Amino acid sequence: MIEAAAYILIGGQSRRFGSPKWKARIGNETVLNRILYSCKEFETQQLVGKYRPSEYKVPFIQDRHKIQAPIIGLHTALQQSKHDWNLIISCDLPLMTNSIMDRLWGKRKTGSDVIIPIVNDMLQTTCAFYHRKLLDLCKAGIQNNMLSLNDLVRASTYIEVDFSDQTDAFLNMNTQEDLVSIKKKLL
Predict the structure, then answer these.
(1) What CATH number does the domain containing 175 carry?
(2) Could you give a GO molecular-function term held by this entry (predicted)?
């Protein structure tokens, strides 16, 4: 059991994708179902977004900010969380696995604020553990219109976890073409 909360960001306008990404299907399941499965070891799982998906009974937190940015979802999650550690994962990572979650969780250390995957020299900010003590820094970033999760991470004490051996798990689904490519990887 991972003694943390998993917050799945389902917000966003999905302009390039053309429809809500979490509803996209891979085989006989939705992308959201795949991500929920990858988070099955967490004490709690919650969805964060603008609108509650009626198809799911998973607890939902409405994101009331007008701004569309992952830092808003993080802020909403940290405000609500009863856990010290909180996974923030976006709904556009359909190849994510629970073994990656376990590996990340195993790297936490006292004094760190973020446990974050790194793939091809890029921080994977929308699939990382964030400590609740970042709430004030997150709030200040939003108030100052500094909406980059990368900047937030770099302003904190973070642990990078190299996932160059599992790059496919971090393939981001932004377009319908991305979805087709991801489906091909599963064949």
Answers:
(1) 3.90.550.10
(2) nucleotidyltransferase activity
| Residue 39 near residue 33, CB atoms below 8 Å | no
Give the amino acid at 59. P
What residues does 2 pair with on adjacent strands?
A: 42
Question: What angle, rounded to 10 degrees, do the helices at 31-38 and 98-105 form?
Answer: 40
Q: What is the pTM of this model?
A: 0.95
Q: For position 13, what pLDDT does the model report?
A: 66
Give the up-direction half-sphere exposure of residue 161: CA atoms within 13 A in the CB hemisphere.
22
| Locus of tokens 């917000």 | 11
pLDDT, tens digit, 9 for 90 and up, residues 123-175: 999 999 999 999 999 999 999 999 999 999 999 999 999 999 999 999 999 99
Kindly list the distances between the CA atom of residue 84 and the CA atoms of 43, 129, 141, in Å, as whole numbers in the listed order: 12, 10, 20
Give residue 50's domain range: 2-185
